[in-house]
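A quick aside before the break. I want you to see a complete sequence-to-structure record at least once, exactly as it would be stored in a machine-readable document. Don't worry about memorizing anything.
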Amino acid sequence: MVIEKKIYISEQDREWLEKVFSVGAECVEEFPEHWIAGGDDSGLSYCFVCAEKEVARLSKKYQTEEFVVDGGWGDYIGDSQAFCEDCGKLLDNDFTQYACEMEVDHFLEDGFDFECGDDCLSMSKVISSAGWEPISHNDLNFYNNLHELCNRILADINKTL
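That is the input. The structure line, written in tokens, reads:
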């Protein structure tokens, strides 16, 4: 008989990790996510400056069509972290469940650096998007992985104290 080891972390550790992630994420600058409305909507994301440049380029190239900068008001969700298609700036969006799963899998495989603002921002988004507890049995694997990762992060932090 195999006994499943409980890896869930305490409420106190959850709150502490949320603070670690939040403080680390504060040093990362995110920009509002924009896109181009009109013409062949390619679904690409831009910062405002690059979106304006793209509108000018498209308007010049396709003079019979109208293009405008859209977005920028927040509350977007995506299957991954968003970056400007032109300059690569980090764009502000929340994560879908899929994005949360991919981020946790990435950190389990490649490691997490609690001193890296980008890593902290990603984990802050995972927690704010997915929470700490499963909603259904279909989510158990993800939450087991999330708590395993957070236990590793706690252990790494404790090594440095």
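Two observations worth writing down. The two ends are 38 Å apart (CA to CA). The chain is about 50% helix and 10% strand. We'll return to this after the break.
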